[in-house]
Design a protein that fits this description.
The chain is an alpha/beta fold.
């Protein structure tokens, strides 16, 4: 039985139970299994009326919604290959994906998105557009209730485009075998997390479905005894979390860093006894993790567990069994922070090409700074340069219409991830960096920037982002973003933030070999964001774009004699 057949079977069993919801005006609007099947039938009727056939491609341009889910399932049920687009991107990015995937139809959630697409030269003439209002709600003569098309393992079901941190996005083809295998893995791990349960699980989703990990969570949730509630307003995530009270949900490191920062700032603002207990408990917990400790540490932790941590847990989520984190390695101290307050953080490592997942932390067996062991059935090893290689049923068959790049990525049947990492004796992996991000000084030293960037950012509460520089230069420098700065550096107007950063750098450099020491920095007046084109929609740094945007500032750093 394929993953899609299992989902349809589950929806039929849950005909009278809520399976999917949206947050609307402070309320959860939920659909039963029967309701969702009826919407899928509507969308299938529309699909066939427009002549779409198995193997055709259909692009979806819309934010997460119940209708997005129904259309996605309907298209796959008819054998149509789904190409999800990111509604937060700009028109030129949509055009790149549309031009590459050549869909038979482009479905938009609303007129505004459709207008944005039609404004791109050539799109309106080449592609048929359909609005969600056309697809759903119309009275049609016959709506199919037949089972979904049976997919062979090698049948493509979706093309997910990479985020394009550098270079042109590529279409990753995922087939039915990839997704069926991965849902078996995710269901098994969630069974471990949740244990024997009778009541329905509650899951919250805010990451866009155009990303492989978000799509896997969606399909996993639809295949198990779960109600999945979709966020409809990212500015109200805290309120939506309180309303949905999920048992778990998928996050990116940037979100967890913000939550941690908000908690720490709130406690500092309160001051008094609470702030004192929290600070001493945090110090005690850190000593405990490093196998140190004082006689009073257990008392401070007990006081915090009784008086402080329960209130924090209620604010983050009353029913949380775990936070699941992927997209990029999470700073070890942030993972420890949540573990300290009693909320496990389970890391997941993977790429779009690996059907989103290679490794998953096991509940109750988590080591901060590591991302877990390879899921059963998946092999992982490293090449001589430390690059992580993966093979197994989760590996994609290839990039859409790019045979040369497919061959380059899959020599000998191993997928070359481009990530560097290492596994301990038990097979628990740590991700150390990205090969394409590797900085090679003109002295020949190779440096992975991510650990140093994380270390500096972690030592300064008001620092938002750090980007390390130095490729083919004689020393390392950094661009730093903080709130409320005016462009300070250690070569000019230092300001209060500049002084703090220099102090943190001095402390960091003291424990590093000379070639890893950061000798200069520049503080930028605003952070890197999706809106200014310097972050991907999943919060990853667009390093090439950052270097190009701030080329003048970078040159000035290297014109000065390093500290």
């Amino acid at each position: 039985m394929t993953f899609l057949e299992r989902i349809f079977e589950r929806l039929e069993r849950a005909a009278d139970s809520p399976v999917l919801g949206e947050v609307r005006d402070g309320q959860i609007v939920a659909l039963t299994g029967a309701d969702l099947l009826a919407m899928i039938a509507e969308a299938r009727a529309f699909t066939t009326s427009r002549g779409l056939k198995p193997g055709d491609r259909c692009a979806l341009l819309a934010p997460n919604s119940i209708r997005w889910v129904a259309l996605d399932l309907a298209l796959m049920a008819e054998g149509v290959i789904v190409v999800p687009l990111d509604p937060r991107q700009v028109a030129k990015d949509w055009l790149a994906v549309i031009s590459d995937s050549t869909p038979s139809m482009l479905c938009c959630s609303d007129g505004a998105l459709a207008t944005g697409v039609q404004a791109v030269p050539g799109v309106a003439e080449k592609y048929t557009l359909a609005l969600f209002d056309e697809i759903f709600g119309a009275v049609r003569g016959s709506m199919t209730t037949s089972p979904p098309q049976h997919h062979a393992d090698h049948d493509a079901v979706t093309i997910v485009y990479t985020s394009g941190t550098s270079g042109e996005p590529k279409g990753v083809v995922l087939n039915a075998g990839n997704i069926s295998f991965m849902l078996g893995c995710t269901n098994a791990r969630l069974d471990q997390l949740m244990g024997a349960r009778v009541e329905q699980e509650s899951v919250f989703q805010y990451a866009p479905f155009c990303f492989a990990a978000a799509r896997i969570l969606l399909l996993t949730s639809l295949s198990r005894h779960t109600i999945l509630t979709l966020s409809t307003d990212l500015t109200k995530l805290a309120d939506e979390l309180k309303l949905t009270a999920p048992h778990y949900f998928v996050n990116v490191p940037m979100f967890l860093e913000r939550v941690r920062r908000r908690i720490e700032e709130s406690i500092q603002k309160r001051g008094g006894l609470a702030a004192g207990i929290f600070a001493r408990a945090q110090q005690a917990y850190e000593r405990k993790q490093s196998n140190g400790g004082r006689a009073t540490d257990s008392l401070w932790l007990a006081a915090a567990n009784a008086l402080i941590f329960p209130a924090i847990r209620r604010n983050v989520g009353t029913n949380l069994k775990a936070l699941i984190c992927g997209s990029a390695p999470l700073a070890a101290d942030t993972q420890l922070f949540f573990m300290m307050i009693g909320i496990p953080v389970l890391q997941v490592y993977g790429l779009t090409e690996t059907t989103a997942i290679c490794t998953m932390d096991e509940p109750g067996n988590v080591e901060s700074g590591r991302v877990g062991r390879a899921v059963p059935g998946v092999e992982m090893t490293t090449a001589e340069n430390g690059e992580i290689l993966v093979r197994g049923p989760n590996i994609f068959p290839g990039y859409w219409q790019r045979p040369a790049e497919t061959a380059k990525a899959l020599p000998g049947g191993w997928f070359h991830t481009g990530d560097q990492g290492e596994a301990d004796a038990s097979g628990n992996w740590r991700i150390t960096g990205r090969l394409k991000n590797l900085i090679i000084l003109n002295s020949g030293h190779n440096i992975a920037p991510e650990p140093l960037e994380q270390a500096l950012a972690a030592s300064l509460s008001d620092v938002q982002q750090v980007v390390l520089l130095g490729n083919q230069r004689s020393f390392l420098a950094a661009l730093v973003t903080t709130a409320g700065t005016n462009g300070a550096s250690n070569g000019g107007n230092r300001g209060v933030n500049g002084a703090k950063i220099q102090s943190a750098l001095d402390a960091l450099n003291a424990g590093l070999p000379h070639y890893k020491q950061i000798r200069a920095f520049h503080v930028l007046p605003e952070p890197f964001t999706m809106e200014n084109g310097l972050l991907t929609t999943m919060g990853k740094l667009k390093r090439d774009a950052i270097s190009a945007r701030f080329a003048a500032e970078i040159e000035k750093l290297y014109q000065k004699k390093p500290a």
